[in-house]
Amino acid sequence: QDALVALSFSGAIGLTFLLLGCALEQYGVYWPLFVLIFYVLSPIPYFIAKRISDDTDSASNACRELAYFFTTGIVVSAFGLPIILARAYLIKWGACGLVMAGNAVIFLTILGFFVVFGGGDDFSWEQW
């Protein structure tokens, strides 16, 4: 239960960085909120690969590696989007830094969730 509180707190900190990069008066542009799409998309390849590898053991390694590849692409895209927005002068570099800090915290939170709660085969939502 302490892990859940810590993950919730770190998620709130990450989203605070993201919102500060958008809503501070000197920035005031909400384009960086598009990284929320990457936050939602990042665990999906892992869920699909875990579901498929539970059914068949022969292709589980290749499927898992492909899921890691897609997840890496999603995470790199989430870090690249604010840089592209800043280079195109759609957001300021300070906002880019805050969004990148939020990205780091949020993705570490997502990773922490899978490390803490998804490690064993006896995972159930009842342990919350």
Plain-language structure description:
The chain is mainly α. Helix content is 73%, strand content 0%. The chain has helices at residues 2-23, 35-41, 44-55, 60-87, 93-117. The relative contact order is 0.19.
Strand and helix layout:
Elements: H1 2-23, H2 35-41, H3 44-55, H4 60-87, H5 93-117
Salient structural properties:
flat, mainly alpha, about 130 residues
Brief digest:
73% of the residues lie in helices and 0% in strands. The chain is built from five helices and no strands. The longest helix has 28 residues.
Secondary-structure element string: HHHHH
Q: Indicate the mean pLDDT.
A: 89
Question: Which bin fits the share of residues in helices?
Answer: over 70%
Total number of helical segments? 5
Global Rg: 17 Å
Shape: flat
Largest sheet: none
Low-confidence stretches: none
N-to-C CA distance: 6 Å
Task: Give the number of DSSP strands.
Answer: 0
Name the structural class. mainly alpha
